[in-house]
Amino acid sequence: MKLFMATLSTETNTFSPMPTAMSGFEEFYLRHGTATQDPPNLMTEALHVWRRRAEEHEWEVIESLAAIAEPAGLTVTATYDALHGEILSDLEQAKGADIILLQLHGAMVAETVEDCEGDILKAVRARCPDAIIGVSLDLHCHLTDAILAAADLVITFKEYPHDDATARAEELFDLALRMTRREIRPVSRIFDCRMLGLYLTKEGEMQSVVREMQALEAQPGILSVSLAHGFPWADVTDVGTRVLVIADRDESLAAETAEQFGRSFFARRHALSTAYPDLDMALDRAAEIPASPVVLADMGDNSGAGAPGDATFALREVMRRGLTSIAAGLFWDPIVVRICADAGVGADLSLRLGGKVGPDSGDPLDIQARVMRISSGLGQHLGEGIEPLGTMVWLKMDGEIDLLVNDLRTQVYHPEAFEQMGIALSSKRLVVVKSTFHFYAPFKAIASQVIQAATPGGASPDFRNFEYRRGGAECWPFVDNPLEVNTQKTSQAKERDRTFV
Ligand SMILES: [Zn+2]
């Protein structure tokens, strides 16, 4: 048995003015068949699992590309062609495979291809009509009919923050293995909930939603249930929350289960959506909390959702209010990093920080600061994996304001991003982190309270700030009752009679 596997992952914020090019993959993560020789990260955990499982079965393993870029705008055509072309040419060189497992993101949009994952899977299917094709997606994906039509098995992460990539990789391998033994014949159906939303799965109603999915998976005939949350900062046809059910042989069971679950999810939309305070309200609220440190999430500038990462709105307001004892980061500003590296530790500098990418960054902020430390090669935990931090600079301003600036766009996942640099968060009154949800659990552990703020920026959780011309315009909250509109799509997932084994 021959297994072919690869990873290609970026999440495209189509509203972002920053193109995603090869440099974005090169600086973040790019390996040509050797990713399993590195420690795993979120999007390569699956490759490690699949290699280990395949080798236990003494299968041949062909490992292809692993390419990951921090989310930004549309992927430029030459980069998309080169990356998906590499997967296809590796597949051709391997003379096909019996099983093809891919870890893709699901929200990659190129200049000329709206559904990159559907496009890749279609090309893979064309080359390997009889292979078992399985794909694991981030739950922030656009679940399209093209993806389902080309793949036999599609599953998404269930948890946000994503701490179940390994479990999903195991699940996908198990299902593929059962297909090789002809124990199952998966059929998949989607229900489109027609909702835009952000759903943290670690508390409240969403915790129950995850448990309900797991309970459904224990029902006879159901092989897998996924809730694709969708990636709301994308003006694409298939944006929005969708339920995917894989049943064994039984199309109606898959379709009915997906619809029932999807309608129940939609019915709970108000309980599932949070009205986040704006920056002013969030800072007012923080001031009333007696214990420290208060952690405030600068949600609007989460580069993990394609925002620039150099927005100054929150820091400007903190300074305007004269607040002291602050830690804030990560500001993406390679120019400031370069100036600080040239000046060296101990230098007192006049710096123009952030505000460079566009209107979503706000205006640049002119500050006086001392360079306290410069470090390269550090990482921060996201679940089990370690994510890179690039070159980081710790800047200290009057009023015990400590800033973390770096040259690699990434959100804050873990307090260790600050603490490895020497910034003791426990001594701070307020810690401002550029992130939406991934920071949540590790920071909650050190915070007196966490406030997620609907700050301005390229990843603002207030979707009214974005102009949707395609699918998003037909979703709740823009349409009150979109499921009553007679445009409900049903998936036409293809089944194939396998001659394989
Ligand atoms: Zn995600």
Write the layout of secondary structure elements.
Elements: E1 2-9, H1 22-28, E2 29-32, H2 45-56, E3 60-68, H3 77-93, E4 99-104, H4 116-127, E5 132-137, H5 145-150, E6 153-156, H6 165-180, E7 186-192, H7 204-217, E8 222-228, E9 242-248, H8 251-267, H9 269-272, H10 279-287, E10 294-298, H11 313-320, E11 326-332, H12 334-343, E12 348-353, E13 365-376, E14 379-382, E15 385-388, E16 391-397, E17 401-406, H13 416-419, E18 430-433, H14 440-444, E19 449-453
Parallel strand pairs: 1-3, 1-4, 4-5, 5-6, 10-18, 10-19, 11-17, 11-18
Antiparallel strand pairs: 2-3, 7-9, 8-9, 12-13, 13-16, 14-15, 16-17
Bound molecules: zinc ion.
Structural class: alpha/beta
Distance between the termini: 9 Å
Poorly predicted parts? 487-501
DSSP summary, beta strand count: 19
Number of domains: 2
β content, as a range? 15-25%
Enumerate how many helices there are, as a single number. 14
Spatial strand sequence of the major β-sheet = 12-13-16-17-11-18-10-19
What characteristic shape results from the CA principal axes?
A: globular
CATH architecture of the largest domain: 3-Layer(aba) Sandwich
Radius of gyration: 23 Å
Under CATH, the topology of the largest domain can be stated as: Rossmann fold
Give the CATH class of the largest domain. Alpha Beta
Largest sheet: 8 strands, mixed
Q: What would the average pLDDT be, to the nearest integer?
A: 95
Going by CATH, the homologous superfamily of the largest domain would be Response regulator
Q: Which ligands appear in the coordinates?
A: zinc ion
Task: Name the helicity range.
Answer: 25-40%
